Amino acid sequence: FLRKLRLGKHVKVVQHGHFKSVNNKFNPIQGITTDAVFLANENTSTSLEEIEFGFQVWQKNMDSLVGYQPYSHKTIGKKNYQFFSSSYAGSYSMVSSNAMFMKSDFLHAYSCLLSEQVHHFVDQHPECADIAINMLVSGMTGVAPVLVDGFSLPNTNAPLLGSQCIEGLVRFFNGQNTLVFNNQIIKGIV
What we know:
The chain has one domain: Spore Coat Polysaccharide Biosynthesis Protein SpsA, Chain A, CATH 3.90.550. Helix content is 30%, strand content 17%. It has helices at 48-60, 104-113, 116-124, 129-141, 159-170; strands at residues 36-40, 66-67, 70-76, 80-84, 94-95, 99-103, 146-149, 185-187. α5 (159-170) links the parallel β7 and β8 (185-187). InterPro entries: Exostosin (IPR004263), GT64_dom (IPR015338), Nucleotide-diphossugar_trans (IPR029044). It comes from Rhizopus stolonifer (Rhizopus nigricans).
């Protein structure tokens, strides 16, 4: 399956280690030599063409997370947030890590630069991992994620949990919600 990719790069599948933490998904592995990594859950099923197209989109948006499933939020008052496990009013502010391209350097930033408080919070609330990586990358770059129209993924975050995740994580980002909205959906030509 992976040998047929026409990306011109070596593809290596990395399994989770023995220590179970959702944060492990974003650990940089020794020997990464590529500019990008593709993260996928074990239940993600897609075609080679969809992966190749997503990579092409990422090459044009290297400071963004590029994914296939949007999440969104809206602010209610000063410190409350409503989370949506799809786009809201035609825009989105996050993409799922169930299938996502990202700059390899963001793995280092998540694992080594993000505060231990965030790692502990995500260990206690595993459903918050996607929101944490989106907040980190948007906060570092000021750039919104990019949504690729492609395969559908199972929804994993309940709206109430997502809302609580944003509220909890904002505390660790100096009280700032760093998420950036985008309304573009990149579609491939069939």
